[in-house]
Design brief:
single chain; about 240 residues; alpha/beta; seven-stranded mixed sheet; five-stranded mixed sheet; globular; binds zinc ion
Length: about 240
Amino acid sequence: MQILKNLYQVSGDLNGLTWNGVDAGYNDCNSYILATQDGLIMFDCGCGDTIDQIYQNMRYWNLDPGQIRHCFLTHPHLDHAGGGHVLKKAGTEMIAVFQTADAVAKGDERCCPYLYHKVFEPFVVDRIISDGEKLQVLGVSVEVMHLPGHSMGCTAYLLTHENKKIVVSGDVIGTLLVGEFGWSGSIDFNRDLYLQSLKRFARVDSDIMLPGHGMIYFHEPRRRVEESLNVALMEWR
Ligand SMILES: [Zn+2]
């Protein structure tokens, strides 16, 4: 599904772009491809079992899966990072903060494989990044915002494309209806840090938000973050 010129959503079972199970749900995250002249940048890679569907979706848009040069992970949960071992073997540079890198290297409970009755195939992240860092990747500047809470590895990525400020938000906020925030069942869920992250994230202006599940926002995404913050502040006081 095309979002803007050269920007695509290539997985996500809530809208049926990929499918892994009997019902639409949270088995497979939204993953995104940004196409540049020098290759493709991916954000999250789905649960692993849907990688062929992702490749099929990519080919429909004339995106060659063999050209995925870099993959940024928003956090280590299986529905987001389970396909990482496939990309890694194909030569993609995997990029994440330390907390995500450590979890996917071990494939332990922080990746939540038990939720999906699966095994997480561990892999080594190639480039460890940290909060505030600005990376130049295939000519694109990507800013790292570490927002722990839903999991300790939660990271948003900010970039400008087609004169629009894009934020890839992972599961920092829920995106089905107003005022949701990410699932609180992770073994490394941390409520206090999550609140701090939401407060910080609610001050970030962007034009388009590419979330980890559900709908993309094209109008003042910050408002949705503020709604989530409001619910969190009320529920967790
Ligand atoms: Zn998650």
